[in-house]
Amino acid sequence: MASETTAMGPSAGASTRPSAGPGLVARLRRDAPWWVLPATVVTSLTTFSGYALWTALLGHDRWGPYLSPFYSPEIAAGRTRASSAIFVAGAPLLFRFTCYYYRKAYYRSFLLDPPACAVRDPHRTYSGETSFPTVLNNLHRYVWWLVAIVVSFLWLDVFRAFFGTGADSGHIWLGVGTGVMLGNVVLLTAYSASCHSFRHMVGGHVDCFSCVRFGKARYQAWRGVTLLNIRHPMWAWVSMFSVWGTDIYLRMLQAGWFLDPHIRF
Amino acid sequence: MEVRVFRGVPGGEQGEVAYDVPPVEGMVVLDAIHHIQKHLQTDLACRWNCKAAKCGSCSAEINGTPRLMCKTRIDELPEGPVTVRPLAAFPLIKDLVTDVSWNYEVNKKIPPFTAAEGDRGPWRIQEVDIDRLYEFRRCIECFLCQDVCHILRNHDMRDRFYGPRFFVRVAGLEMHPKDVLNRVEQTRAEGGLGLCNITKCCTEVCPEHIHITDNAIIPLKERNADAHWDPINFVRRKLRRDSGGGAATRGLDEEPAGGPPR
Ligand code: SF4
Ligand code: SF4
Ligand code: FES
Ligand code: FES
Question: Mind listing the domains of chain B with CATH numbers?
């Protein structure tokens, strides 16, 4: 079959410089609607941030033995719940903001840097993570420690939800709410334990495991974190939705929409 | 089946030419290109070698995505014409062939594997110390990752950015239990490690499924953070140096003592 010439036109440029290479003129990926992912990320993260702000300003109290993850630890005792949420939201928000996975998500979806692979990014200049403020993402490892403290308090909250607080203590409370809180803290633990910086801390920085003290244990720890790390984006998303879901559940209990099904003994 | 192939030379006419290629079951894009070369356009330029996804020569952009032509089955592509274009990040030579020699220049800048002075082996290396490195050795130097990286592709920053393929190489050397050089500072200052915004396109296109971002670039960024963003490490290093107990790490300004070239 004879060939048919289409779209032949003047050269993109006589230069042999790489930027004059073919394909820089106009190209769009045809294999998938590349904009679906950025659009989903923008919608989810914007809605979550809006909700987090709203819930932080609104504030709410405990429901029975339950406490929303947005208000733990209760470091602003004596002030309003809203102020408590504003204080404690900082660490998890910074954690997610500096997380390697969320960085990918917002660079691609919010900053279009690039919007998708092999899709041209619209910026004329580029500095990546070499200038302020993105260079501060290098501090992610410190935020990890702050979040480790917050997650420890969330475990304490689950413990207190099981075993009651104040006048209620001495009983074991097994309710849907305790399950929701437990699920949430498990997912948050998986998210923070699968962190790239944590992976580096537990053993990633070691070049020769058999040459260092506790090398075998460090290798095992690194392997364990690596197994979790493979699914880090999944943990990032499900833990975000579990925080959200836990707060919504407790809010519905507070509004009296239904009673938390539970056994108390 | 319509296959639209980019044709042209620098400074000359450039554009896509549509060819009608009879589909064959199990056909890959390289088969279609071979059919065109044999029956329709004998002067069509294309680089290939193994047809087994192992030599890394047949890199091209298929329907706008950087892929190996010999590993892309036609029946996996969406309905409609198949577009084949050369790598967008490198200078065009002719048709589907680009000049990727810049990559070899970058490669030369990275100090090769260097064992400690007097430590010539043979070595018995524990599996736990080496198993991270197998993945990096799978690289076939197809440069698809270099092509897709927006820092090279869109911003043309090759004067200050090595690109993902070479971060893989540096990571493989840095994590080697017997290597004593430290290339992290060079990779930051000269290789533009901080320019990478970990958007993972390199990982998405790698035909060898190397987790370039997670296993090479992020660990290098963390090692860079150890060096520049960690005051505890800074004090620890200072104390160790003051007490004369520094690690046996050779400086980059020293001549490497030899070793395998890659
Ligand atoms: S992750 Fe970094 S090196 Fe890889 S394509 Fe993206 S910017 Fe380039
Ligand atoms: S890292 Fe992967 S994509 Fe990059 S050159 Fe090697 S094999 Fe090709
Ligand atoms: S990398 Fe995502 S939490 Fe650290
Ligand atoms: S021909 Fe060797 S990788 Fe395709």
Answer: 2-98 (3.10.20.30), 101-243 (1.10.1060.10)
